[in-house]
Design brief:
By secondary structure, this protein is mostly helical. It contains 9 helices and 5 strands. It folds into 2 domains: 50 residues, no CATH class; 100 residues, Arc Repressor Mutant, subunit A (Orthogonal Bundle).
Length: 178
Amino acid sequence: MTESTPGRRRKTPAQKVTNGLEEILGDSLQRLHDANPGIGFTLIADTKPKKHAPATTHGGSWAGIDKELLRNIHLFEFSNKERAVLDNMTADVDKDGVWKGTQAQLAATLRCNQTTVSRAIVKLDRKNFVWKVARGTYQVNPTWAFGWGSDHSARVIAKIGKTVMATKVIKIPGKKAA
């Protein structure tokens, strides 16, 4: 829409991208999902709002995660602090799903003590959401961080290795594996 039509607003760049994707993909993603209900989709978008435009996100970017895991996260019975540790680590992963920082830094961010963070990481590790790679370096499970079935997740899983990932499957409590 290059001209202004009376009574109609101009589309924002985000609306143009969304409409463009809908035109290109049509209902392909919906048909794929209907045929494979266990598939999750991830779309990561970095936005840099113009000075005159309001931000579409609080931090300028957003990421999608596996819907089934998100719907069932309550079944893991994480405490508020455990969930806060997971969410903060996930929010700050690099392109490979790696979170770098210290437990003390995370404790300061969450306004709790380091023991609380340490215990949370132990539980998150037992549930395969995060695991320690090296001192101050943790891998956030790409299934959680990027969504199962996404190209990004597949690339990170390949980099980590299928052997390692076979031991890091997130199993939803009370749900049978597909």
